Amino acid sequence: MLELNDVLVEGAEKTVSMMAQERKVTCLTGGSPLVRSRLLLAMMGLEPLKSGFVCIDGEPLGKATSRLFRRMMAYVPSELRADGEVVVYEPPTVQEVFGLKDNRDAAISNGLLSEEMKRTMAPDDKAQLLAVAVLRQRPILLVDSPHPLSATYLHRQAEGGRLVIVSSDDTDILRMADEIMEI
Fold this sequence. Notes:
- This protein is α/β, with parallel strands linked by helices.
- The protein has one domain (2-182): Rossmann fold (3-Layer(aba) Sandwich), CATH 3.40.50.
- It is 33% helix and 23% strand.
- The chain has helices at 33-43, 66-71, 94-99, 110-120, 124-135, 151-159, 171-176, and strands at residues 2-8, 16-20, 25-29, 51-56, 59-60, 73-76, 140-144, 163-167, 179-182.
- Strands 6-7-8-3-9 form a 5-stranded parallel β-sheet, with helices on both faces.
């Protein structure tokens, strides 16, 4: 279980409290896409909290636990620019996030990646980002602005035992979510 307790991030107008559980898709919706992105990053300890705290299975996120938390998570940014920086928020860049030792632990073969990209039903870069995150086989999957065609795929990830948190206002994504958290 991933829990946010009265979490406030930069740019947010109100605090967020929620509990996301394994085998369910929780969708963060409403508010600004930037604030939702910052909430996803805060769950990994990569965005400072103005107030509140994040817990996984009752263990609070802190300096001592942030590396452990990130080992449990796979993150899919909303999109990439040509230089590799995530468009929705300022640094850390995608290179910094994926350059973390915790995220380099497994090589993914091109054949396996191609097959998984097809399963996502998303186009091009969105498919690759989502497929790489899923192939990391982490128990927590954080997806910023997934493509609507990936809704069923994301729900299957949750049914397979993952805790899935997405950030979206898309009606297809909202329909497939088990829980919706209005920001």
